[in-house]
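Section handout 9: paired folding examples.
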Amino acid sequence: MGLNLKLGIVQKIALSIGNLLVFLLPNKARQLSENRITLIHKNKSNLNIVEKLMRYSLLQRLEKIEDYDTIAKNNREFWIKNDAIDLFKEREDTFEADFLPNCTFIFEMLKNELSNQTEQFNTIVEIGTGNGDVLNYLSKEFPQINRFIGIDLSTDQIKLNRKKFEHNQKLEFVARDAFDWVIENGQSNTIFVSSRGVLEYFLEEHLQDLLIKINQLGKTIFVAIEPNAAGHNFETEPKTQLYGNEPSFSHNYPHLFKSAGFSFWHSSQIPFFDSGSTRTFIGAKNL
């Protein structure tokens, strides 16, 4: 029996049991599915086997959403609210298990890119800083840069970050919308970073406007590490697509960065096996 067939049988059994549990435990089912985005991002390590099976069943029942404005609004509200803090805590584990072994290569390439530039960059801004671990890592990898700013929608998470990293005087954490922050505070000679799922929550036109504004600041560099739908072909499909249960947006990042006036010092995609999606790495500049 092939691996895919075995997996399919296990999934069918899990779904059948989950469906039965949802029927027998309606109050628990309502509690688990109180919020669509919370259900999707719920920390599975905090669930018992019954809750995991029920969650699997409930995820299969989610209605398909195709209204882009509604999707963006729901996702934005989730990341602003306290519900997101548990997910940020869960990502503390993925920093060691995923970010360090799989994503840091692009920052080694950034070091080479900076060594070939006559311009001196004095600030790194991380859009969607989450728990701050990536920004803290960057402050150690780029000692020549003195200012590291982490922006996030979650006010409570920003407060936690300020306490967690109070020993690192280079770090600043700001609870703001990234677009508003760039308009009011963006400067030339800045490196912008997004790491492992931030830009996917922007509407396409909003993200395009943000990239244009950043490009207009002057000398800037952008490092983006973002997920995409596995079947999204950047060569033939320039427009944004929906993917995942949230759902979120699979943007054509090369197209958007080029349209904003950036050129590339790196662009690649790597299959992201755990989620069935693709991870896109972009190193862009307007030098």
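Moving on to protein 2 of 2.
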Amino acid sequence: MEAPWCALEVLYLELEIILLNAIKKQYLYAILDIETTGGKFNEEGITEIAIYKYDGHTIIDQFVSLVNPEKAIQAFVVRLTGINNNMLRNAPKFHEVAKRIIEITEGCTVVAHNSSFDYRILRTEYNRLGYDYKRNTLCTVELSKKLIPDQKSYSLGKLCKAIGIPMSDRHRASGDALATVQLFKLLLEKDSNKSIIESTIDHFDSKKTVEKLHKLLKSVPTTNGIYYLHNDTGKIIFMGKGANIKNEATLQFLKKTNRSKKVQEKTVSISYEETGNELITLLKYALELEVNDPKYNLRSKKKITQNNFNNDNMLLIDKGRVLDEHAVVLIENNEVVGYGYTNLSFQESHLDILKTLITPIENKPLAKTVVKNYLKTKNLLKIVRF
């Protein structure tokens, strides 16, 4: 049960008094794309760069600029990108934007489609300035091969077309970077065991003071979803859910049981996922609890239903996380195949595209039990039978 707001204010005040000082930990990504002059390896120059700072949910900062490479652009690159030497005559040189790039990527994991290329180009430019530029990196090509398997092509344009991500300004830095943001958002949703987040968490000295938990809560929204508490190696040690995950996490941090105190002591960071509605919350929570097996979650054996749905093939549609978005659960041959989100009607009407967007479900009996129990008492926006 959620505490009323007046009570929550008291709880926050209690946290302010009780908990010790420490540093809030965030997960930040610098999602970027770079266009170059082409040419010999490590002799390329940057002609355009776009960086979107992403907190796993929204873009919180951005930098987009043409760059004067101080060298000619190869003809095939001009035809591909539309960027020519005349366009760059008055553009800033790399050393004039270098500080801004360092600032916007500081504390971030650099994410790019074929990150080895973009990261190499950046490091090469900074090496020319005598600066050693280092960031952790993630490649959406490699992540896509793992989380969106069996695609004909993993080039950015063809992959986005196959899974229904709209693109504009193809082969321009801003257009490609924005498409990569949407692709990375989908990959985070599909990453049920949270390996992406765990790989980007810095390791902490276990002897340091426990983080001030009330500061962690400032990043958590008051929306329907799931929150994850991580230890100093990034491992999930506790999962919680609710219609207001900020309230639920607050109450968890204030419990006085021995188990809860251990959770509070070992938690150094918190992440969350908004779900948009109760069905996805219940389904995602039950499935991820099985996958991640957090040490401090109390587990009760769920009775698995043997009954079938009223229809063998259905698409369950409910409200999404934002306006103009739907949450969907796909049922085929009386089994729950997967769940996900759509923002275009043709994604819902074309099963081949829909199946690339949804997160597939392995524990189908558990998923069926959760969905059937929900449908007994709750209504959805729409059910499409086919």
